[in-house]
Amino acid sequence: MEIPAINLKAIVLVHWLLTVWGCMVFLPSSYAWGNFSVLAVGVWAIAQRDSIDAVLLFLMGMLVTILMDIVHLGIYYPLSQFNAVIRFSAGMAILNLLLKPASCFFVYQMYRERGGDYNINFGFPTASRNRDTYQSIDQQDESSSPANPFNQAKDSKPGVRSY
């Protein structure tokens, strides 16, 4: 199954809109600063199409903002006062949080397309059966023998070396 290619511009635009609407009323300025800083790195990743570092930094920033958004929503979510603007702002912040893992997946795919090779290992052992580059130490090369380990000609005299 082929993974659909999502444009990095679309990811940045959607999260920018949701962050703007999410921090309208009840979330503090640290929510906006954190998310907009990561989105600025996303703009850098858009501008430099060949940069692996920009995409990796954008991915790591998105992962950090997932945790920070959970903390912000857990602390500042209003429990008693609900009007239409607060509900809309809270809904956009929650929708932003729910879309971030999928966006991280697509940003990781873009990182792999740009040549990044950061294999994620969750600790599960895997065995590979690819032995194409395996070279046995039991077989020795015929050109060298134990009596002549440096492949020198037997008739040659050791000459004076000029340095």
From TrEMBL:
It comes from Iconisemion striatum. The keyword Cell division does not apply. It holds the Pfam family AGTRAP. InterPro entries: AGTRAP. This is Angiotensin II receptor-associated protein. Residues 133-163 are annotated as: Disordered. One of its GO terms (cellular component) is plasma membrane. Residues 133-153 have a biased composition (Polar residues). It is found in: Membrane. It is a multi-pass membrane protein. The keyword Cytoplasm does not apply. GO terms for biological process: angiotensin-activated signaling pathway; regulation of blood pressure. Residues 154-163 have a biased composition (Basic and acidic residues). Keywords: Membrane, Receptor, Transmembrane, Transmembrane helix. The chain crosses the membrane at residues 30-47, 54-79, 85-108. Its main location: membrane.
